[in-house]
C-alpha cells in the first residue's frame, strides 16, 4: 500500500495565495521555491508515514 498526498481545495487555494503574496513581495522564483518546498515536505511526510506504519501480518 502506498500513501498519496491529496490537498484539499482549501489547501490548494492557500498555496496559491501564498505563492501570489511572495511573488508580490519578492519574486516568482522565490515563491516557487517556498511553495514547492511545502508540497515536497507533505509528500515526504506521506512516504515516512507509509513506511513507518506498515501493518503487521503475523499478529500473535
Automatic annotation (TrEMBL):
<dbReference type="InterPro" id="IPR035093">
    <property type="entry name" value="RelE/ParE_toxin_dom_sf"/>
</dbReference>
<protein>
    <recommendedName>
        <fullName>Plasmid stabilization protein</fullName>
    </recommendedName>
</protein>
<dbReference type="Pfam" id="PF05016">
    <property type="entry name" value="ParE_toxin"/>
</dbReference>
<keyword id="KW-1277">Toxin-antitoxin system</keyword>
<dbReference type="InterPro" id="IPR007712">
    <property type="entry name" value="RelE/ParE_toxin"/>
</dbReference>
Amino acid at each position: 500500500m502506498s500513501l498519496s498526498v491529496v490537498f484539499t481545495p482549501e489547501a490548494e487555494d492557500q498555496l496559491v495565495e501564498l505563492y501570489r503574496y511572495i511573488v508580490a513581495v519578492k519574486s516568482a522564483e522565490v515563491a516557487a521555491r517556498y511553495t514547492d518546498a511545502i508540497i515536497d515536505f507533505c509528500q515526504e511526510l506521506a512516504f515516512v508515514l507509509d513506511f513507518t506504519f506498515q501493518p503487521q501480518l503475523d499478529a500473535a
